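Title: Request for sanity check on DUF2236 domain-containing protein prediction

Description:
We are preparing a figure and want to confirm that the structure record we downloaded matches what your pipeline produces today. Could someone re-run it with the sequence below and paste the raw structure tokens into this thread? We only need the token string, no images.
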Amino acid sequence: MNGTPPALTELRARVAAGIFRRVAGPSGPATRDRIHLTPGPRWFAPDRPIRRVHGDASMFVGGLRALLLQSLHPLAMAAVAAHSGYRGDPWGRLQRTSTFLAVTTFGTSDDAQAAVDLVRSVHGRVAGTTAEGLAYRASDPWLLGWVHAAEVDSFLRAHQRFGAAPLDRAGCDAYVRDMARVARALGVPDPPLDVSALAERIDAYRPELRATEQAREAARFVLLHPPLPLVARGPYALLAANAVASLPPWASSALGLPGFPGPAGTAVRATGHALTRGIRWAMSPPPQDAAVRTPPG
């Protein structure tokens, strides 16, 4: 017995189930077991930084930040607006993304490669023209490089701000290298390999970045009108505020989003710490289940 009151245990289970259902979808339990319990070699060993970052509740903030930052490339945003179905099926898109991250981070090498092959197949069919007449292809290595850089920067910054065990500088560099393994598989020829190179890569994209009307519409949808029950909107608003607060000023300004200087920023960050701790508590398996949930190496 762990001495936890039954009411608290039930609350924890209900919260965890609600979060997991949203993130993983109806097939989530079976997918989770396949990812973690299937024997075989993995792309990443159990002690790799990518496992620490992607297994932490800070990813909820990092994921929202990544969506906002990625939207600032007009070609990437045009592809998302035309082909992703983020308005009609936002939870389906989230579930596909979270499953991809879980499979490539924790799954067997065969499953990770299969997930990458599927994404590359989908990307190969996504092409079009923006309202300004610019052509785009989701398989374009340069465009894939922007999506990758925005994700890596967002996941890492959120983890360093809200993660249970932030990485040291060497660990941050190692996380960027881990993510480069996935990026190359997806078709990015020269992903950044450390934090300095990541910052330089983002700077290289800056002349191309701006907020189109599609980007502003996506930000309004993601931040203000998520399809959530009333009881979940308060916590989600705190996640969204922290995602916005963690953006670089040039990005939040381009999207017309508020800044959080001084005491306001401190207060927002405090809510982010409290919320990610709450999610982490709810989603952590009870001690008797820990061995079952530990991914095999």
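Thanks, this matches our download. Residues 179 and 247 are 20 Å apart (CA to CA).
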